[in-house]
Each structure stands twice: as C-alpha cells, then as structure tokens.
Amino acid sequence: MRSETARLGVLEPDEMGGTPRLVFANQLRGIAALAVVVSHLVGVFWWSRDFIALATSTPVQQGTRPGFTAIVASPWFMAGPFGVALFFLISGLVIPFSLDRLSTRGFLLARILRIYPTYIAALLIEILVLHLNGWFWNKQFPYSTGTILANLLLVHTVSGSPSIDLVNWSLSIELKFYMIAALVAPALRRRKLWLPVAIGSVLTVIALLLRLPSPGSGVVASSFDTVRQTLRMESVYLVFMLIGMLFTLRLRSVANGGLTVAGLLGSIMVLLVLFVFCWRIGPQAEQYPIVLFNYGYALMLFSASFLFRKRIRRAWLLDRLADISYPIYVVHMIVGASIMKLLLLRFGWSPLSCLITALISLLALAIILHRLVERPSISIGRTLAKACFR
C-alpha cells in the first residue's frame, strides 16, 4: 500500500470493500454535486419559471428574482455544466480501475447495479412527487407509461422521450462510456497509451458521419433522426470523458509504461481539439463558446487537484457530500423544486427559507437513498460480478 500511495497519491479505503479511492477524485464528486444542485435550485428555478412549472406540475411563481441568485448569475461561469464536467472527468479516471479488478462482463454487471437501483428508486420518488403535485395544484400528470419506461431504462434519449428528472441525460452518456470501456477492455487493462486519442478520433469520425441527412422519410426515418441527433450530442461528452482516462495512464509510473508529462499534455490538447470540434458541428453548437468554457474550468480544477493529489487529505464535509453525490444528483431537481414551490406559493415563505429547507430535505433523502439503496446495491453488484464472472 505504501508504494501504491506514493505513486497514486493519498488513498482511502473503500467502505464497501472495493479498490481504494483517490481522495482528490472522491472529494471532487462532492464539489460537482454541490455545483449542480446550486445551479438548478438557485438559478434555473428562478430563471426558467415556465419550464420548471411544466416539469414539476406546479404553478409558475411570480415576483422578482431574489438577490441570492446573483451567485450563479455570471454568463461566464455556469455551475451546472461545470459540475457535470467534473463528474465526466472523474468517470474517465476511475473506470479503468474498475476494469482492472473485474472481468468485462463482471464490470458491466457491477456498473449496472451501480447506476440503476439508486436511479430507479429516485425516479419513482420523483414520479410520486409529480402525482402529488398534480393532485395538490390541480395539474395533469404530464408523462405517458412509455415515457416512464424509457426513463426508467435510460433509453429516453434515443427513443425521443422527454426527461422526467431533467438530469438523466448524463447517465445515458455514462452508460455508453461503460460500453466503450468494455469494448476496448483488453487494451485498457494493458494501459495502451494511444487508446484515449484513438477512441476520441473514432468518435469524431462518427459525429461527422452522423451529420449526413436521414435516408428516406416516414416513421423509420424520424426514429433514425432521433437516434442520430442523440448520438451526435453524446459523442461530444464521450470525447471529453476520455481526458479523465489520460490521467489514469499518467498514474502509472513511467518506468512501468505510464504516460509522461509531455504525453499527457499533448494527448489532452488533441482530445480538447476533438471535443471543441465535435461541439461546433453538433446539435448544441449555439452554446459555443459560453457553455464550453465551464468544461475548461472543470478541467483546470481537476488537473490542479491531480497535480497536488499527494497533499490532499480527507475533509469530513466533502467526504460526506461525496458519499451522497449520486443520490442527491438524481433526486434534487424535481423534489427540490417541488418543495420550494409548495413553501413559496402555499405558505408564503421567503425564497431563502424555501431554498434552505429544500436543501436540508434533499440531504436527508439522499442519505436515506445512499444507505438503503446505493450502498447495498453496489455491494451486491461487486459480489455478483466477482462470483459469476471470474
């Protein structure tokens, strides 16, 4: 463990018996979750009132925006994209470690049980909240059975169904990243230094090919176009996630075939060029360059944390927030906004009191999901993966 600690940086034991975690990466999860929650409940809740009302089956709140929304008002820093970018980089970093200790099929099983149980539990809670909102505010439940099933399975992006929780688009991208990692598992386990750039190049070619118009017309063509546009959008973020994988290659000592500093910087530059190019030709091109900057900020923080990883020690607050980062991410938007609407419109509370109460409620709910669903499902996933797919 000493040699491992010296090479990788400060490690902490995994509470569920898995590979020890890098402290800096684990704490960045907490920062990422906080950034997304603050962005949505402080910013989006007030700036996109009609959209939030429709998404939560609640009335539109009136009045001026409260002063505290200024903390997320800068057009040059968007906490939501910044937090999501951190999550993507962390995934790119840690997924190769998961593949090291499991077979490819075991890895996929473990990741399925890592993602789905907590997500499904959170989504069912949100669906219940939407039904309660509809009853209380005399609004119609907005989603069909097909939409619910597509969201539960995380295939809503390719089926053309709307997102129920407004954040699960990123989970669909995570699943595709797992599939890519499984496909290249042999090369990834051998830490082939060219792999991230090669995958990024292939994804860029695919993004270019997907710009071609859909063949024919009718239902089939329409369905194909939905899939095509989705994959064009998702390929952008998949390229970005590969940057995290480069840092995994750097963690391996140069004497053992790891990536040199020059190799790391050069590969990052190549993937950044591909990332920007895919964004410019993708369906979200109108967001360039403002939203793109936040991915740069996330990369700078991630890189600095990686550079000083040996000096970063455990911090109770960040560690606890990291523990519940996934459940609070998947449950915060609908539940948090609904609590704020109820307190604001029905009971006349101040905006700040509504926000604080919603945050406390979300923390409590996330802790419950973490202890009752997330931790057991991760443990079961690891056990089954090792037992069934050795």
Automatic annotation (TrEMBL):
Spans traversing the lipid bilayer: 30-48, 68-95, 116-137, 166-186, 193-210, 230-249, 261-282, 288-308, 329-349, 355-373
Pfam families: Acyl_transf_3
Domain (Acyltransferase): residue spans on this chain: 25-370
Any Gene Ontology biological process: polysaccharide biosynthetic process
GO molecular function, one term: acyltransferase activity, transferring groups other than amino-acyl groups
Keyword Transmembrane helix: yes
Coiled-coil regions listed: none
Protein's name in the database: Acyltransferase
InterPro entries per UniProt: Acyl_transf_3_dom, Acyltransferase_3
Source organism of the structure: Lichenicola cladoniae
Keywords tagged on the record: Acyltransferase, Membrane, Transferase, Transmembrane, Transmembrane helix
Source taxon at top rank: Bacteria
Keyword Transmembrane helix assigned: yes
